[in-house]
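We treat protein structure as text, and this decision shapes the records that our systems exchange. The remainder of this section carries one protein's record, kept here as part of the documentation:
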Amino acid sequence: MSERADHLSEIPSGATDGYPGEVTVGVGPLTIEEVVAVARGGARVRLDPAALAEVCKSRAIIEGLADDVEPHYGVSTGFGALATRHIPTELRRQLQRSLVRSHAAGSGPEVEREVVRALMLLRISTLATGRTGVREATLTAYAGMLNAGITPVVHEYGSLGCSGDLAPLSHCALALMGEGPVRDAEGVERPAGEALAAAGLEPIELQEKEGLALINGTDGMLGMLCLAIHDLRGLLVVADIAAAMSVEGLLGTDNVFAADLHALRPQPGQAVSAANLRKILSGSPIRASHDVEDCPRVQDAYSLRCAPQVAGAARDTVDHAVRVAGWELASAVDNPVVTLDGRVESNGNFHGAPVAYVLDFLAIVAADLASISERRTDRFLDKARNHGLPPFLADDPGVDSGHMIAQYTQAAIVSELKRLAAPASVDSIPSSAMQEDHVSMGWSAGRKLRRSVDGLARVLAVEVLTAARGIQLRAPLQPAAATGAVVDALVAAGASRPGTDRFLAPEVATAHDLVVDGTIRRAVETHTGPLN
C-alpha cells in the first residue's frame, strides 16, 4: 500500500450532494464548479461529438507528418535536450512508450484522489480541443478510465511546473497504457491492467505524438487552483462569521462596518465583507447592551475593526485567481500544438508561471486570514483585553485552563502558514541539461496551498469555538440570531459548552467539521439570507 498524503483534509469522494451528475467536455471552457464536481463529487464526463470530430481532424495532420523526412518535435525527434535526435519510423511508437515510462518518476506520498481526478479531467479537456493531435480512441479511453473511478497513483514530488506537470501526468498516462499502480473505484490499490480489465477497458498503445500530448500540460497545478478557489470562497464567508462572533463576544462595535464608511475606500471585497458583518450582527442584544453614552470604548483593536479590510483584500485576491483560472481553463496547453490552420508548431504555453503566481498569492491570503483570526482568539483569552470574561474562558482559572492550548494550536498552524506563504514560483531550478533552464514550480505552489487552505479552516474553527464560548459567558445577554445559531449548532454537535475542562481535541475537530461541511454558514444564512 502506497503512503498517502493523509495530512490533507479531503471531502470524501462519495459526497455527491449538490454536484451535477455529468459534465460535458468540448463545448467550451470548463468552469471551476465543473472541475470540482468531477474531482470531488464523482460527476461523469461526456465528450461532445463536435469535439471528437475536431480531434479526428487534427490527428490526420499528425499522421500526415509521421513519414515526413523533416524532423517534427514529439513526432520524429527525442525530447527536451534530446530533441536533436531523429527517430526512425520503426521506433516512434517505442519513443512514446519510453517517454511515459521514463517520465513516470515521481516520489513521496500519494497525491489525494480529488487532485488526480482534477488533473485527469483537465488533460481530457485539452485533448478534446483538437489541438494536441491524439487519436479519438486515446481520448475516449482516458475519459473511460476517469468515469470508471480508476485513479492512478501519483506521487507528491516530480513536477517542476514547466513542460507541464510531467511526472504526475506521466503516471496517469502510464495507467492508460495498462501499467503501474492505480486505485479502483473502491479505493483499493491494484495493477492498472487489472483495474482496466475489470472496468471493461483496453490499454492504449500510444502512437506518434500521443505520449507527449498526454503529459505536457499545467493540469495538476490548475486542478489544485480550482479546488483551492472553491474552498477559499467558502472559508471567506466563515471568516466573516468568525469575525462577527468575536466582535460581539468581545463587546466590540459594528459602527465601523457601516456602508458609507466603506464607500470611502471602494475596494469591492471590503464592501462585501462589511455587508456580511452587518447582516450577521443585526439585532444583537449583546451589542445593544454597551451602546450607551458612558461606554469607555473609543476604538476596537485592529483585528476587530479592520476585519473587512483584510477579508475583503483576500476576496479580491481570490477574484484575481478566478480570472487567471478562467483563462487557463480556456487554454489548450501542449507542445507542439496543431494550430487552427493546420500547422504543427512548438511553443512555450506549458510554462506554469501564470498559475504558479496566483497559487502563491492565495497562500499569502490564507496565512493572513489565519493570522488575524488567531489574534482575535487570543483577545478572548487575555483577562486584560476580554472585557470581563474569565482568563482563558476557564470555569475555575488555575484549576481549569479553558481554551489556552486551543490558541496554542492556532498559533502553531499560523506559524506554519507563514512559512508556506514563502513563494515557490521564484525558486526556478534548471533541468534537462539546461534546455529547460527556467521553470515555474507551480505544482509545488499548489501542494503548499492545499496545506494552507486546510490550516486556515482549522484556525477559523478554533476562533468560532472560542467566540461561541465567549458569547455563552455573556449570559444572560443574548447574541444576535445569526451568531446564536452558530452556538446552537456547536452545542448540538457536542461542542462549546461552558464548564470545567474536558478533552478539547474532539470539540476542535467537531468545529472544524462544521466549518468545512458548510454547517456553520448554513446556520447563519437561515437568519441573514445568502452571504457573499
Notes: The first strand starts at residue 22 and ends at 25. The two ends are 42 Å apart (CA to CA). Strands lie at 22-25, 44-47, 107-110, 151-152, 155-157, 181-183, 189-191, 337-338, 344-345.
